[in-house]
Amino acid sequence: MRRTLAIAAKEFYHIIRDVRSLALAVAMPLMMVFLYGYALDMEMKNLPVGVLDYDHSAASRDLVRRMTAGHFIVDAGRLTSREEIDRGFRRDKFRAALVIPQGYQQALSSSDVASVQILVDGADGTTAAAVNNYLNAVIGMMNRELAAGPGGRMTPPLEMRARTWYNPELVSAHFIVPGLAAVILIMICVLLTSIAITREKETGTMEQMLTTPVQAWEVIIGKVVPYMGIGALDAALVLLVGRVVFGVPMAGSWWVLAAYSLLYVVIALALGLLISAVTRTQRTAMTAALMGTVMPTIMLSGFIFPISSMPWPLQAISHVIPARYYVEILRGIMLRGELWFPKQLAIMCVMAVGLLTLAARRFQSRLDLL
Amino acid sequence: MTLREWLRPVGHIVRKEFRQLRRDRQMLRMLLFMPIVQMLVLGYAATTDLRNIRLTVLDQDGTAQSRKLAEAFHQNELFVQGPAAASPQELQEHLFRGRADMTLWIPKGYEQDLTAGRTAQLSVAVDGANSNAAGRTLGYAQAVVRQEEARLLTARRLAQPNLRIPRIEAVTRFFYNPELESRNYMIPAIMVILITMVSGMMSGMAVVREREVGTLEQLLVTPVTPGQLIAGKLIPYAVLANVELAVALPIALLWFGLTLAGSAALLFGCALVYLIVTLGGGLLASTVSHTQQQAMFTIWFFTVFGILTSGFFYPVENMPRVVHYLTYINPLRFFMVITRGVFLKDMSLADTVPSLIPLFIIGFVTLTVAVRRFRRSVA
Q: Mean pLDDT of all residues in chain B?
C-alpha cells in the first residue's frame, strides 16, 4: 500500500509539474461544455436564403417579409438571375432560394393559384429538409389566412397543439451535458492512463521500476489513481458547469450519480489498462485508445447521435459500449429523477469485472516477458 | 549546395521514418484499419437523419377521419409504431419512461368538428430530453398535419364551389443531393477528419518522440540541418495522409455509393494545401512539448475544437457571433467546405479560391512559426 502510494505520488508530481497538460486536462472539458452549451445546436437558425423576385410587388415583398420574420431564415439579399442561384449554392452563400415569378400578385388578387418556386441546396440534407419544411409552413400559414380572410370565410380545418416535455426550451445543454461527462471520463481515463503506462515501457523506466521491490500491480494501481482523480474532477466540473451556467436540472440525487460514476470510472480505467497491456509505444496506445474507446464512445453512446436511427449492426455494437448505459443513467437521474437502473447496473458490473480480469491477466503475461 | 545535395539527407530521414513504421507492425495494422473502421462506423452513425421515431397514437375519436389522420402519420416512413396507450396519462408515461419519442392524441369530437366546418383539435407531444431531435421531430409532425390539412381544405373547397379563394403553391426542387441523404454530406467530412488526425497527431508525436527518447540530440550532431530534419520527419506523414485518403476514397465511392461530382485532382491538390496546415500544426505542438503525452494532448485539444466548430455536424450559421468569427481561423472549416463542395457540388478551382486562400495563409503562418521555433529550440 505504501509503495503504491509512492508510485501514485511520483505520477502525481509528473502531472503537477506539467502545468500545461494539467491546464489542458481542465480546459478541454470546459471548452466542450461551453461550445455545446452556447454554440453547437442542431436547431437551425439564421439560415441565409436568397430571393429572386420577378414580380416586384407589394404581395411578393410581403411573402419575403413573412418568410424572414423568425430567427430561422435571414435574407441573403436580392438576386437578379438564375445563374446567381447556382453559383451561390456552390460557394455556400445561401441555403435556399425563393423564386417569385411575375404575375404573383395578379394571381392572388384574382383568386387564382399563385405559384412560387423554392430551390434548396440539398447537399446538407438535414438542413435542406428543415429549410423546406419551414418555408412550406410559412406558405401553409398564409394559405390558412387567405382562406379565412376577407375573400375566403373558410375555417381552417385543423389545429395542432404541440408540447415538448422535460426540456421545453430545447436547451441542448440539458441533453448534451450528461453525455459529455461520459465522453470526458473516457478521454481522460483511457487516453491518459494508457499513454502514461506505455511511456514507462517506451523510455525503459518500466524495467527499472520492476527491478525494485515494487510489485507490478502496485505500479499499475499507483499510476492509475492520479488519473482517476483528474477524470473525476473533470466529470464533476462538466456536471457543475452544466448545472450552474446552463441550468441543467438535477431531478435525482448527486450521491446516487456519484456511485454510478465510480463504477463507470472503474470500467474506463480497466479499458486504459487493457490498451497499455497490449501496446508497446505511446503512439500505438494513443491510436488504439482513440479508435477503440474514444471514437466509439462519441459515436455509439447516444451522446449526440440517436442510436435508434442507426442500422442494426451498429445498434448491436452499441450494446457493448459502456458509455451507452452510463449516459442512459445520467440522463435518467438528472432529467427525469429516476434513481434505480437494475438493467444498466447489472451490465456495467459484468463489464467492470470482465475487463479488469482480462487486463490483469494480459498484464501478468506481458510483464513476465520484460 | 544544389537542391539535390540538400535533399539527400532528407531522403535518408524519410527512409528511416518509414523503416521504423514498418517495424511497428501493431501501428501499421492500426493505420490500415483506421480509415476503414472510421469510414464504416462514422459513415453509418454520424447521420443527422432522424429515423425510427417511435410514435404512440391515442385515437379517442375512433372515426373514419381520425383513422385517416393516424394513417397519415404511420404511412410516413420516419415513424414507427410505439407502445399502445389507453389514456392521455399513459401517453405521457410513455414519453417519461423513454418508450416513445412522440405521441399523438386525437380527442373525441375530431370528426364532428370537421364535418361541422369547425376547427378540429389534435395534440402532439415530444420528449424534449433529446433537444437535437425534438424540434425536428415536431417539424416532421407539422409537415404531416399540414398535408392532411391541405387535403381537408381541398374537400371544403369542393363543397363550396362558388367560393373563390386565392392560394399560394410552392414547388420545391433540391439541388445536388435530391434524396437529402445526410450520409452524402457526412462522408466527405469524415475523410477530412481522418487526414487531420493522421497528419497532425502522428507528425507531432513523431518529432517529440526523438526528443523524449533522446535521439534528437544524436541527429543534430550529424551534418543534417534542422530544415532537412523537419522535411524528413514531416514528409512521411504527408504521404501517410494521402495513403489514408486513398484507402478511404474507394470506401466512399464503392461501399457507400457516393459519386465524386468534381475532379479528384482538385481534391488531392487542395489536400496538399491543407497538409501544410496540419503538419505545421503538428510541428508547432512538438516545439512546445517535451513528451509525447503533452504533444498528443495539445494537438487533440485543438483538433476537437476544430472539428466541433468546422460545420462537420453543427451548421456554422447556428453558432453565436463570437464562435462564428472563430471559425474563420479554423482550417478544418475551410477544407471541409472544399471537400464537400468538390464531392457534391462539382466545385471548380475558381469556386474553391475563397476557401483556399485562407487555408494558404493559415498554413503559411503556422509552418513559418513552427519552423522558426524548432530552429531556435535545437540551436
A: 88
